[in-house]
Backbone:
């Protein structure tokens, strides 16, 4: 009896002591509702966030000639306006941004682009793991999207934080940005920036590997992803920047089809109010919109009577007529431009702020601006530029003419009109090109120049507040002047090192190679203390 | 049997050898638990050289010279007893209350105090219980050296901020682990210690022990150093508080009742510095002159008081040629004069002196074979403020049964249910755009009374969010109902296999569910605000301005419409926590030749904790119309467009496995060494196998000097005992709950899209992989000493410790190329050290009169030694402080104030060394040297002084607590513009009014509209002023925590009443602050006035009757 009892108790105790056999399985329970990338569908879902949520517009527009200082003599009345945030003073003066890590800052652009790249890399890693497990799985579409997202993230980074692409040889001397192809697994990793030429070659490889894998039917909302048209539009822009004009034509032909007029934006519709106009501009049913990209940005608040504005000479470049029209471009019908007071500058519905509430009752959340990242209208101008440099001038002018027609220009344009308009003394619009200084292979002949000026003007109109103007300024070595306050006039020369926006201070502090800066910051934007 | 035979033979032999001695034998038993006492000392009276100690079964055997007839049996913590020599003597030792407890309960193990090498404090619940304070954790304030209890909110259910030896982490909780009857109590929801002071509704379910009835608690054991806590190793970095509940005792049958009746004082304006309505009206007049209260701006403003009311009355056409108020100076002045003399006492209106009752009944009984304890309690609190009632019911049983003499089964179960009402409030949120912490809607009565103008008529409706607002109406129509159920089932088996070897198996299930229903009724201001402006007779400008209205983006001609045309808003939130624990341990005790004592303890445990949160928001619930929902489909369309969810369901799963062992060796009770190790695995850091396991350990030793032969000769009676302890340990914790990325973390998300038609669901990377992620760790070196002087009339315990916390989670700044520039990783470390003294003196001891003084003093300081802190100005100057290398964990800085201008505007020295009004960059993070370091926000010195005087049945207890060394940010009361709702403190009396005042005052001017327009960003100046060197106070205080007088009715009386004991007690709690910085002006240095559901601890009086039959 006694031993029986003892046996029972002993077995209870021993079982309980050694019940923890499969500890590691027990501890494999996920600590929360996180997921693993174990199906093609989940990889597709992950790629939803492989698009950067940063908006480059504030950095690029304020650096370019699309913005002026309302406090400078350039704008007739003397104001004492504050900038929206201190960062804007830094950006407009082409100085390193040290005062912000928030939306629109270099910090945010850097981090969000690399976050998107990391997302793409995780997707690619998961694709190869799934493929290893089951070779029959079809993951090509996901792979294509991931490669394009990776290429696109690097394309933005290299164009913001490095010098423009010059040519294969010269760009080997320019500092690039790290090109990342695997997920990071450690806290501190040191990266090499490589060269602009490297980065461009890797982007090219990713585009070419991915572009034909894309399947539009794989997307539930194709226009928020790299659908095949968007991918080709990206390729067209990329090759334009790389000056591989044949490829530009190949890819833009894919986008534009045989009759571009059917896919260009219908600018003839007039909207009731700015909200409706804002929503219409980003509409996915609009054939001109190839890829729409929501971003976290407070860009639209910049226009509310602050120091830097679309005003003065910047506005004059827009309102000063064109080869087939006078005044504002006819596409921007009444109601397109808005203002918080005419003297403070204008803005348009493209930059409508849309608000996401994390808590509606508490009234807080995130400010968004939606970018129409790729449009047929812009791809058309890419093609025009490529055609021109392939000495297919007539076709180029034909494209420019299509652009004019779709943009409500009633007067037909031709080469002579273009030459007449862009050779006259219009300093707001026509700025000397220094492309030949950047690369001996980048020659713009006297015959081509007015047409290039026309293309650049059209691009400036087309991409206003989207940041592409800054890239064009960089590509052609266009020198621009910023009048800062009452006394400073700062010129950005064609080879100015400040054309590569300084990488975030936080990143430099932990050892990333900074962009070279010879000058000490002038600090001429600081607000002077008041007398007591 | 064989042993017995050997012993018997030996015995015979001994008898033969020494004819002149006789053998005494027997067993020593404790009166408390009827268990044998191990290591009790037996000496022969008159022959101090002859003696022995009892063995593991409490038995002893001793040769006694023939002539001696008495033995002295003694044991630390027990009253020594003389017994006559004999065989098989049964000696029962009674506990000596005046001595410290003899057993240290670690929650897993009961350790003989002489063999215990760690720093721990045992507190008897009877001695520390605060009558009328239902949450037992608050009773620990000032009771143990090194333990600080900060009552950041006094509302029932919210947890105080408890620190054992200060902070142990930078981003982690530093919360001690609570262990009740051997089972770790998990918090119902993982709430950080900073969030405890947030005032959010969640804080009401933050305390894991709010369901414990104070009357059920036997004792607390606070484990402080690594030696004491090492058995919990990887969870014990911040200390352990072990709670033991009452059990039945063999031979004692008892029914007890205790009733507490508590009344709280309403706060009074005399304690605060708030302007009365006359002074307030004077300020409004000045604001009016300065252009702030103009008709056009105020009549249509979202939030207005007296002036807004006046302007709207002027605008209100009665239909018979008259208006609500005649637009004439006389009529207006009369209207304003009425407000000027109103002097509304908001405290009187919103608070009540209601009576809180707590009744507890327990029965307990026991025989040799079985024991039980069972109790029930009811607590009813009608509410100190309006809309804040609580009732709580608890039940607790503890029964054990000896199936065999060496095999015991124990069953414990406890349950509690709580129903609570709190004023409707929204959670504090951080505005991601401005970084400002704010609460959009708040009707907390305490902060309302402090912040609302006394010129308002409490029966009148004013305007908030464009809709009518009256605080009493709102409190009645906008409240949170909370229902909390908490149960625990626990079973234990205890088997003494052979002599000295004991095995214990324990299993427990805990379940807590709390539902939180936020009722925003049909006619509450919060609901009405959603329809303000849409009705045709309303001001059309409101329709344009009201941000709560909805304009359909798909309809280009849409006007703003209400998405809540009918009804109110019903928000339901349910938190559940399910925990399962399983543990088996063995304990082996053996002594060799009465000289070598060995104890080996070991075991394994597993635990699982699942926490869930489910919530939904029901729009258009018609409270007044039979509870039928009437919702507008646009609410869902809008939600989709703005990416706002209307329901959610989130879960976390915790899994732990641990193996542990501890070995103790003691030589003759004089020298003890101990080594403890634990190997713990957790899923908390993610699925990576490299991160999940962690070994922790401790080595320690103790020297009981008083056991040495020479001790008595040297010190005679002056020093009666002296123990010295030393320990060195590694303990750990898992770091903040949001850092779990040992593998990359993928979560699902609904990325924002401008229109519902293009929405899609996705995944995103929540955290990049950190393959090096590990636990936060702590090395601790502890020296401890216990002394007893003059026959233990004076007892002193002292500890000094040095800690190195490393692998702490901090922000790491990286190159960002992986996708995150700032990551949380194990990159920080800090040093801390401190000292602790507890001194108990029996100043006067006699039969009838006793006077005992307890003095507790402890100091703790910490400094961050490693952290790449990129804090910016706003972080460093905000109330709770921020982490910065070279400073304490929570360090507070100020913007240097540089005087007022000749316009009365404040100036400061900025980062460039310039004196400025508005050029303060709150985001600056490079050049921070211009900020003035004020001090830590956690106190560095805490303690208490208690005096207990007893005379016959009377006992007077006066208990003071104190806290020093921290700084407090004064409430942010200054602003670049005020409204006619604002209430100003009396500081405003000394404000700058005319040029020249800047020489005599530092209180800035009420800015005129012109100044406001001239100075871009004038708000920066006033915001800087609120966070300047002018607006800081010391957090030092000495508080009269408790004064109580109790009377135990004498036995003679009781016999007539047929009761065993009857005691009456009157107690005053939180009476007043004896000392506090004068700059605080009534602001409680402990309390964070964060609004929401937070209220300070009230001043209260409790009458208690306790009775046992």
Residues:
């Amino acid at each position: 009896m006694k031993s029986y009892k003892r046996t029972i108790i002993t077995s209870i105790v021993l079982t309980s002591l050694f019940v923890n056999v499969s500890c590691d399985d027990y501890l494999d329970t996920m600590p929360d509702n996180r997921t693993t990338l174990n199906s093609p569908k989940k990889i597709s879902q992950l790629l939803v966030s492989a698009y950067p949520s940063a908006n480059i517009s504030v950095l690029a527009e304020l650096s370019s000639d699309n913005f002026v200082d309302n406090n400078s003599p350039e704008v007739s009345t003397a104001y004492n306006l504050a900038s929206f945030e201190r960062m804007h003073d830094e950006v407009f003066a082409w100085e390193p941004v040290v005062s912000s890590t928030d939306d629109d800052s270099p910090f945010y652009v850097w981090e969000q682009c690399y976050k998107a790249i990391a997302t793409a890399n995780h997707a690619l890693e998961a694709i190869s793991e799934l493929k290893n497990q089951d070779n029959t799985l079809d993951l090509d579409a996901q792979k294509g999207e991931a490669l394009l997202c990776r290429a696109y993230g690097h394309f933005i980074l290299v164009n913001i934080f490095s010098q423009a692409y010059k040519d294969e040889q010269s760009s080997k001397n320019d500092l690039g940005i790290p090109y990342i192809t695997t997920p990071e697994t450690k806290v501190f990793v040191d990266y090499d920036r490589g060269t602009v030429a490297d980065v461009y070659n890797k982007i090219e490889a990713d585009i070419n590997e991915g572009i034909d894998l894309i399947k539009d039917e794989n997307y539930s909302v194709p226009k928020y992803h790299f659908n095949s048209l968007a991918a080709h539009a990206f390729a067209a822009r990329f090759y334009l920047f790389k000056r591989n004009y044949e490829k530009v034509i190949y890819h833009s032909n894919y986008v534009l089809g045989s009759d571009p007029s059917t896919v260009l934006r219908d600018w003839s519709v007039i909207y009731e109010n700015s909200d409706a106009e804002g929503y219409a501009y980003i509409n996915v049913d609009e054939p001109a919109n190839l890829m729409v990209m929501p971003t976290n940005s407070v860009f639209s608040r910049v226009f509310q009577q602050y120091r830097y504005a679309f005003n003065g000479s910047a506005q004059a470049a827009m309102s000063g007529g064109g080869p087939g029209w006078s005044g504002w471009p006819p596409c921007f019908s009444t109601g397109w431009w808005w203002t918080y007071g005419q003297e403070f500058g204008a803005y348009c519905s493209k930059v409508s702020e849309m608000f996401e509430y994390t808590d509606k009752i508490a009234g807080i959340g995130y400010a968004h601006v939606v970018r129409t990242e790729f449009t047929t209208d812009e791809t058309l101008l890419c093609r025009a530029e490529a055609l021109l440099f392939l000495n297919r001038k007539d076709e180029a002018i034909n494209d420019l003419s299509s652009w004019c027609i779709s943009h409500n220009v009633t007067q037909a344009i031709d080469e002579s009109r273009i030459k007449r308009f862009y050779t006259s003394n219009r300093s707001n619009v026509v700025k000397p090109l220094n492309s030949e200084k950047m690369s001996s292979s980048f020659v713009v002949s006297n015959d081509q120049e007015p047409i290039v000026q026309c293309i650049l003007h059209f691009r400036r109109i087309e991409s206003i507040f989207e940041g592409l103007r800054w890239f064009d300024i960089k590509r052609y070595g266009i020198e621009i002047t910023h009048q800062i306050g009452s006394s400073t006039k700062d010129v950005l020369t064609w080879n100015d090192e400040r054309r590569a926006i300084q990488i975030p201070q936080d990143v430099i502090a932990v050892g990333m190679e900074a962009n070279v800066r010879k000058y000490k910051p002038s600090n001429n934007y600081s607000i002077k203390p008041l007398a007591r | 049997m064989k042993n017995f035979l050997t012993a018997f033979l030996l015995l015979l032999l001994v008898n033969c050898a020494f004819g002149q001695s006789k053998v005494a034998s027997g067993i020593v038993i404790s009166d408390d638990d009827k268990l044998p006492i191990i290591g009790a000392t037996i000496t022969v009276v008159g022959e101090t050289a002859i003696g022995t100690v009892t063995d593991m079964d409490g038995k002893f055997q001793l040769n006694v010279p023939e002539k001696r007839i008495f033995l002295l049996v003694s044991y630390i913590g027990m009253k020594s007893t003389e017994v006559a020599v004999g065989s098989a003597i049964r000696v029962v030792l009674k506990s000596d209350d005046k001595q410290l407890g003899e057993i240290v309960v670690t929650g897993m193990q009961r350790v003989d105090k002489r063999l215990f090498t760690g720093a721990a404090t045992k507190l008897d619940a009877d001695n520390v219980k605060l009558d009328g304070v239902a949450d037992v954790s608050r009773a620990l304030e000032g009771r143990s050296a090194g333990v600080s209890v900060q009552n950041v909110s006094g509302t029932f259910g919210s947890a105080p901020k408890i620190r054992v030896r200060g902070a142990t982490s930078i981003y982690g909780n530093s919360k001690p682990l609570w262990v009740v009857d051997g089972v770790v109590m998990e918090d119902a929801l993982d709430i950080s210690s900073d969030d405890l002071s947030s005032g959010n509704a969640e804080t009401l379910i933050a305390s894991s022990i709010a369901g414990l009835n104070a009357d059920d608690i036997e004792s607390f054991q606070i484990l402080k150093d690594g030696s004491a806590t090492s058995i919990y190793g990887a969870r014990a970095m911040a200390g352990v508080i072990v709670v033991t509940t009452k059990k039945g005792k063999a031979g004692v049958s008892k029914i007890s009742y205790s009733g507490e009746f508590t009344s709280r004082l309403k706060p009074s304006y005399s304690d605060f510095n708030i302007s009365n309505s006359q002074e307030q009206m004077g300020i409004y007049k000045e604001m009016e002159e300065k252009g702030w209260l103009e008709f056009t701006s105020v009549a249509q403003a979202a939030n207005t008081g007296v002036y807004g009311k006046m302007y709207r009355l002027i605008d209100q056409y009665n239909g018979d040629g008259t208006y609500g108020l005649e637009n004439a100076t006389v009529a207006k002045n009369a209207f304003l004069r009425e407000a000027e003399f109103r002097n509304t006492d908001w405290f009187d209106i919103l608070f009540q002196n209601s009576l809180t009752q707590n009744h507890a009944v327990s029965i307990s009984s026991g025989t040799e074979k079985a024991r039980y304890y069972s109790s029930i309690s009811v607590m009813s609190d009608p509410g100190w403020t309006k809309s804040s009632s609580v009732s709580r019911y608890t039940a607790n049983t503890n029964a054990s049964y000896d199936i065999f003499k060496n095999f015991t089964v124990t069953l414990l179960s406890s349950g509690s249910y709580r129903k609570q009402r709190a004023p409707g409030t929204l959670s504090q949120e951080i505005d991601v755009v401005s970084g400002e912490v704010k609460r959009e809607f708040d009707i907390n009565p305490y902060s309302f009374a402090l912040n609302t103008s006394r010129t308002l008529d409490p029966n009148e409706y004013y305007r908030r969010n464009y809709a009518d607002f009256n605080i009493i109406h709102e409190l009645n129509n906008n409240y949170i109902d909370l229902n909390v159920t908490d149960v625990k089932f626990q079973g234990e088996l205890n088997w003494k296999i052979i002599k000295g070897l004991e095995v214990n198996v324990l299993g427990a299930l805990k379940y807590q569910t709390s539902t939180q229903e936020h009722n925003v009724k049909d006619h509450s201001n919060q609901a009405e605000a959603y329809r303000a402006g849409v009705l045709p007779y309303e001001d059309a400008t409101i329709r344009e301005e009201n941000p709560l209205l909805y304009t359909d983006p798909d309809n280009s001609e849409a006007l703003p419409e209400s998405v809540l045309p009918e009804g109110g808003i019903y928000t339901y939130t349910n938190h559940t926590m399910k925990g399962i624990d399983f543990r088996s341990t063995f304990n082996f005790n053996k002594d060799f030749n009465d000289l070598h004592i060995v104890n080996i303890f070991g075991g394994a445990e597993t635990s699982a904790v699942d926490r869930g949160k489910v919530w939904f928001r029901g729009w258009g619930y018609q409270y007044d119309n039979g509870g039928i929902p009437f919702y507008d489909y646009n609410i869902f369309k809008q939600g989709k467009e703005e990416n706002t969810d209307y329901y959610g369901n989130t879960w976390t799963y915790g899994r732990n496995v641990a193996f542990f062992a501890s070995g103790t060796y003691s030589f003759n009770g004089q020298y003890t060494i101990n080594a403890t190790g634990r190997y713990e695995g957790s899923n908390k850091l993610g699925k990576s196998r490299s991160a999940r396991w962690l070994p922790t350990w401790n080595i320690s030793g103790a020297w009981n000097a008083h056991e040495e032969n020479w001790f008595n000769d040297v010190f005679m009676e002056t020093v009666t005992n002296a123990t010295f302890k030393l320990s060195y340990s590694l303990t750990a914790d898992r770091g903040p709950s949001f850092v779990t990325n040992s593998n990359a973390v993928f979560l699902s998300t609904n990325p924002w899209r401008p229109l519902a038609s293009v929405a899609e669901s996705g995944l995103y990377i929540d955290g990049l992989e950190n393959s090096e992620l590990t636990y936060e760790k702590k090395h601790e070196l502890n020296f401890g000493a216990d002394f007893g002087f003059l026959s233990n009339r004076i007892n002193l315990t002292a500890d000094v410790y040095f800690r190195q916390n490393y692998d702490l989670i901090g922000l790491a700044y990286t190159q960002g190329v992986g996708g995150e520039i700032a990551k949380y990783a194990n990159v920080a470390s800090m040093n801390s050290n401190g000292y602790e003294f507890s001194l108990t003196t029996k100043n006067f001891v006699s039969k009838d009169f006793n006077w005992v003084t307890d003095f507790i003093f402890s100091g703790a300081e910490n400094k961050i030694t490693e952290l790449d802190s990129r804090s910016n100005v706003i972080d460093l100057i905000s109330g709770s402080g921020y982490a910065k290398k070279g400073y304490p964990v929570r360090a507070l800085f100020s913007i240097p104030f540089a005087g007022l201008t000749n316009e009365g505007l404040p100036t400061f020295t900025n980062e460039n060394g310039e004196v400025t009004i508005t050029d303060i960059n709150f985001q600056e993070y490079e050049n921070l040297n211009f900020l003035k370091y004020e001090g830590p926000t956690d106190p560095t010195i805490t303690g208490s002084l208690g005096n207990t005087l007893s005379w016959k049945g009377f006992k007077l207890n006066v208990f003071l607590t104190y806290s020093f060394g921290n700084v407090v940010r004064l409430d942010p009361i200054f602003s670049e513009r005020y409204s006619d709702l604002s209430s100003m403190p009396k500081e405003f009396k000394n404000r700058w009014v005319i040029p020249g005042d800047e020489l005599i005052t530092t209180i800035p001017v009420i800015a005129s509209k012109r100044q406001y327009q001239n100075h871009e960003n004038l708000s920066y100046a006033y915001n800087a002023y609120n966070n300047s060197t002018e607006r800081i106070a010391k957090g030092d205080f000495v508080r009269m925590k408790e004064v109580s007088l109790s009377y135990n009715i004498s036995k003679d009386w009781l016999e007539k009443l047929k009761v065993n004991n009857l005691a009456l007690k009157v107690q005053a709690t939180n009476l007043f602050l004896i000392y506090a910085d004068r700059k605080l002006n009534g602001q409680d240095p402990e309390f964070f006035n964060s609004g929401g559901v937070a209220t300070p601890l009230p001043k209260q009086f409790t009458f208690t009757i306790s009775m046992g039959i």
